[in-house]
């Protein structure tokens, strides 16, 4: 338990050794489930709870913070890493009410089987007085789920933003101490779950502009006492036109043909002054790849053919990219086959959500020959030309 500021306590927990979220998202630095106890002169509110796996530590922190009662449990988001301990807390604090918006209430009833009379519904912009502290609710939907909201604590200028602005980091530091590290972790988190909803996030950022935010207390990672750092970073990530001279090249290779083509392309791009990141899908941290896709101008997927289709690792990558919908402007496929292939049609079909303009694919039969390398040279020339057209070279 740590003190955030006068009468506000950080009572969440660190999950140091968690390595996957949703059995999908790598967590190289673990994560935290932040919760905050606000003691007003008349009422006490708890901002979110923690993953049920860690409820014992939350209870320990609440006891240390002197939470002999709780009036309100503010639920910003129905996903269980923040809401999952609400049922147990309601048993511990039977007079507490869950305060949330109607959509989140419906989801909490479905997910946690809470009862109607355990809620207080709030509306966009509504305030709730704790006496000398006032909570104002700001709907910030589609921070990957539709019901998400934030709370602005008016007197202290603190925004409790839940997943929004969060970073998956377990740390003993209450506040951000290494801005570059936290920005990178937040970019990973943004890319992994928020990027497909960036038009909604643009709206959410606009909605926050009138607020005098002195501190952002998210529900994952350290607290921002210099909030402009992360707000500025988000503005860049959600801006469709803020892309960089970079090509992301995820690939997989079986008998080296695709690897030879990928390496030739990557060297060619470097020689032409185009930024590039190569990821071998069999060993890569997918989160690193997603970080790069947040603002890369181009994606080139490298794949060999297995049983007429793309290698399953490449199929996974294509499906992931399709789900995350990065603002990538250009895309292409390089790869190889032994005796026949339908992988170009397959991968193109899998990436139907991408609005990227596709380059002509370069597919070799077996080991790449001179004409394949010539085609890759042309691909590298085309990428450079497109990046110049975008004004990013
Ligand atoms: Fe941290 Fe969407 O839950």
Indicate the topology:
Elements: E1 2-5, E2 8-10, E3 13-15, E4 20-21, E5 25-26, E6 31-33, E7 36-39, E8 44-47, H1 55-64, E9 72-74, H2 80-83, H3 86-92, E10 97-100, H4 102-112, E11 119-121, E12 127-129, E13 134-139, E14 149-153, E15 158-162, H5 179-194, H6 198-208, E16 215-218, H7 228-238, E17 244-251, H8 257-271, E18 275-280, H9 286-293, E19 296-306, E20 309-310, H10 312-324, E21 330-337, H11 343-350, E22 357-358, E23 362-365, H12 370-389
Parallel strand pairs: 8-9, 9-10, 10-11, 15-16, 17-18, 17-19, 19-21, 21-22, 21-23
Antiparallel strand pairs: 1-2, 2-7, 3-6, 4-5, 7-8, 12-13, 13-14, 14-15, 19-20
Helix pairs in contact: 5-7, 5-9, 6-7, 8-12, 10-11
MU-OXO-diiron is lined by residues 77, 79, 81-82, 144, 163, 219-220.
Assign the structural class, choosing from mainly alpha, mainly beta, alpha/beta, alpha+beta, or little secondary structure: alpha/beta
How many domains comprise the coordinates? Answer: 2
Radius of gyration (CA) equals 24 Å
Look at the structure and name the CATH superfamily of the largest domain.
Ribonuclease Z/Hydroxyacylglutathione hydrolase-like
Query: Helix count?
Result: 12
In whole angstroms, the N-to-C terminal distance is 49 Å
Mean pLDDT: 97
Strand content of the residues, in percent?
25-35%
Based on CA inertia axes, which overall geometry fits? elongated
In order across it, which strands form the biggest sheet? Answer: 1-2-7-8-9-10-11
The name CATH uses for the topology of the largest domain is Metallo-beta-lactamase, Chain A
| Approximate helicity band | 25-40%
Q: Any low-confidence stretches, pLDDT <50, length ≥5?
A: none
Distinct ligand kinds: MU-OXO-diiron
- CATH 2nd-level architecture of the largest domain: 4-Layer Sandwich
Number of strands: 23
């Amino acid at each position: 338990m740590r003190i955030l500021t006068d009468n506000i306590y950080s009572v969440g927990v660190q999950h140091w050794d968690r390595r996957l979220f949703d059995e999908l998202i790598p967590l190289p630095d673990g994560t935290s489930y932040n919760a905050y106890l606000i003691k007003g002169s008349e009422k006490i509110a708890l901002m979110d709870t923690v993953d049920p796996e860690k409820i014992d530590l939350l209870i320990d922190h609440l006891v240390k913070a002197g939470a002999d009662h709780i009036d309100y449990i503010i639920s910003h988001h129905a996903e269980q890493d923040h809401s999952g301990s609400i049922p147990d807390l309601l048993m511990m604090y039977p007079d507490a009410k869950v305060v949330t918006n109607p959509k989140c209430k419906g989801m909490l009833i479905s997910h946690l089987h809470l009862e109607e009379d355990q809620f207080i519904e709030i509306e966009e912009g509504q305030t709730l007085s704790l006496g000398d502290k006032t909570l104002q609710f700001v709907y910030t939907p589609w921070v990957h789920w539709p019901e998400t909201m934030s709370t602005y604590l008016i007197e202290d200028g603190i925004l409790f933003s839940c997943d929004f602005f969060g970073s998956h980091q377990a740390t003993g530091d209450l506040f951000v101490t290494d801005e570059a590290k936290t920005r990178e972790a937040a970019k990973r988190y943004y890319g992994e779950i928020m990027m497909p909803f960036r038009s909604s996030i643009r709206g959410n950022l606009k909605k926050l502009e009138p607020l005098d935010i002195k501190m952002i207390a998210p529900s994952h990672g350290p607290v921002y006492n210099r909030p402009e750092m992360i707000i500025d970073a988000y503005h860049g990530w959600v801006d469709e036109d803020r892309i960089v001279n970079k090509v992301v090249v995820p690939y997989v290779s079986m008998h080296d043909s695709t690897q030879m083509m990928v390496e030739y392309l990557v060297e060619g791009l470097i020689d032409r002054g185009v930024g590039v990141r190569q990821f071998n899908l069999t060993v890569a941290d997918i989160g690193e790849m997603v970080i790069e896709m947040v603002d890369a101008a181009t994606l080139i997927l490298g794949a060999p053919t297995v049983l007429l289709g793309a290698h399953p690792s490449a199929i996974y990558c294509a499906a992931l990219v399709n789900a995350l919908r990065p603002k990538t402007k250009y895309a292409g496929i390089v790869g190889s086959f032994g005796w026949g292939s339908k992988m170009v049609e397959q991968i193109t079909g899998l990436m139907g959500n991408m609005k990227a303009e596709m380059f002509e694919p370069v597919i070799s039969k077996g080991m790449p020959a001179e004409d394949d390398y010539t085609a890759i040279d042309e691909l590298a020339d085309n990428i450079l030309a497109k990046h110049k057209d975008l004004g990013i070279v």
